[in-house]
Design brief:
Low-confidence stretches: none
Strand order of the largest sheet: 5-6-7-2-1-8-9-12-13
Mean pLDDT: 93
Number of helices: 19
Largest sheet: 9 strands, mixed
Helix content: 40-55%
Structural class: alpha/beta
């Protein structure tokens, strides 16, 4: 297997870099929804060798560009913890918006040369493939082999105590442009069967399974960074799932001789919490009975009683019997917190009004990684007519949009719309009007996602439909 070609396939820059994607899509064995590394590993050797010779100069050119990008960023100083990363559909390690945001952060960090490292779990079973037959949904889960999606075994294994047992955690690494991602995997032969299943599937199993995943993510994540020689200045929690990293950081400092107050001040000085969900249903809570055996060791390590730890993870408005609240713990021990829009930050301040530290929730409006979500045709149009840095919202670039030719814009936009129409036709048999307004809704069908919000204004919906609006739902 040609080394340069493998590195292009294993580094997920192809997910937002059309020239690399075009090259990899032309490889022998390439197919939609198939990871380029899997295509490489399973390709006919003779056909691959012949194709590689034919495209050798292009492979070397793109590889040199990738190498320059990777070496443009120094050692990571920001650790971004998330239970999911939505980098590409061919890498099924995400479920919904939380993961998509995290994946976009990794890509933007690469583009901006930010020294960031992602930390997450490696799920051996990805999201399910949905099929509809006889008017019923059927799910088909497919196993994920780390080496078939470009993950590299770092050779490091860390250990985390879960449910009173020592659990070995293998440390993998993947690259997203210049951004490394450290992924933790408990499918280790030395672990008992139940421990091997901790990282089997995202958001599955019972409450104990979820708790075990979050302990591995937070505690195992910190220990994996230490094992790799990465010493971040900042720890960023994408939601409360990684909150146990805060207890691990406190434990490190107390072990090194700090008082608890000194340790808390230190951790607050280098931690940030992003809260996403504006309703209680989206926030992890665990019963005291379930969590107490897990946090008892940290309480002893920090020299406090268990009730003190539970006090950090409880809303003051709740009584002492209320469950362990991961968001409350993150608010208590992180120095800064933000919501994901100006409106959401206000909602969060109301939702967590009984937490004094939540009063300072900042509003940071989420952006998207434009090169991922803008079609290749529109990217080419913007590159030609707006110039550099349009994808980062450069005002000077976007000021030139009024001078861009409308007919060229319409042609570029229709190319993407045509693909959507084809997809809807293939999946549903429905023919959409190519010139009509299309409104898309693509979210998980959890109750709090409010998929039925469209139906609350029936008159407005009727007017929209009468005017030719078309609604496409996916999730």
């Amino acid at each position: 297997m040609p080394d340069h070609l493998y590195e292009l396939a294993a580094n997920h820059r192809w997910s937002w870099h059309p020239p690399t994607r075009e090259l990899l899509d032309a490889m022998p064995g390439a197919a939609p929804d198939r990871h380029p590394v899997a295509a490489l590993r399973q390709a006919d050797p003779a056909a691959l060798a012949e194709w590689s010779v034919e495209h050798g100069s292009r492979i070397d050119e793109l590889h040199a560009e990738l190498e320059a990008l990777v070496h443009s960023v120094g050692e990571p100083s920001i650790a971004y913890f998330s239970p999911e990363f939505g980098v590409a559909a061919e890498l099924p390690q995400y479920s919904g918006g939380l993961g998509i945001l995290a994946g976009d952060h990794l890509k933007s960090a690469s583009d901006l040369a930010l020294p960031l490292v992602g930390v997450g779990l490696f799920y051996r079973v990805g999201f399910f493939r949905q099929e509809i037959s006889d008017r019923r949904q059927h799910e088909r889960y497919e196993p994920v082999d780390p080496e078939m999606v470009g993950a590299v075994d770092t050779g490091e294994t860390v250990h985390v105590t879960v449910d009173g047992h020592d659990v070995a955690v293998r440390v993998w690494k993947q690259m997203v442009g210049a951004t490394p991602v450290v992924l933790l995997d408990t499918a280790v032969e030395s672990n008992p069967a139940w421990a091997q299943r901790i990282t089997d599937r995202l958001y599955s199993g019972d409450r104990a399974h979820r708790l075990h995943q979050e302990i591995v993510l937070g505690v195992g994540g910190v220990r994996a960074l230490r094992a790799l020689g990465i010493d971040p200045d900042v720890f960023h929690l994408n939601e409360g799932h990684a909150c146990f990293l805060l207890l691990e950081l406190l434990g490190e400092l107390v072990d090194a001789g700090s008082t608890l107050d000194e340790a808390i001040a230190d951790v607050r000085g280098r931690s940030l919490f992003t809260t996403h969900t504006p309703v209680p249903a989206g926030i992890d809570r665990f019963s005291r009975e379930l969590v107490e055996p897990e946090v008892t060791s940290w309480a002893g390590r920090l020299g406090v009683d268990v009730d003190t730890v539970f006090g950090w993870a409880r809303l003051p408005s709740d009584d002492e019997r209320e469950p362990f609240n991961t968001a409350a713990l993150a608010f208590e021990l992180c120095g800064r917190a933000n919501g994901v829009s100006q409106l959401h930050s206000g909602v969060s301040r109301e939702l967590f009004a009984s937490l004094p530290r939540a009063a300072a929730v900042e509003g940071i409006t989420n952006g998207v990684h434009a090169r991922t979500w803008v079609s290749p045709e529109l990217q080419a149009f913007y590159d030609e007519h707006l110039g550099g840095d349009w994808e980062n919202g450069d005002r000077a670039a976007w000021a030139r949009i009024t001078d861009a030719p409308m007919d060229a814009f319409v042609r570029a936009r229709r190319a993407g719309r045509s693909r959507l129409l084809d997809l809807v036709r293939e999946r549903t048999g429905v023919e959409l009007d190519p010139d009509g307004c299309i409104v898309g809704f693509a979210r998980r069908f959890a109750t709090y996602k409010r998929v039925a919000l469209l139906l609350e204004d029936r008159e407005g919906l009727e007017r929209s439909l009468d005017a030719g609006a078309q609604f496409v739902f996916a999730g």
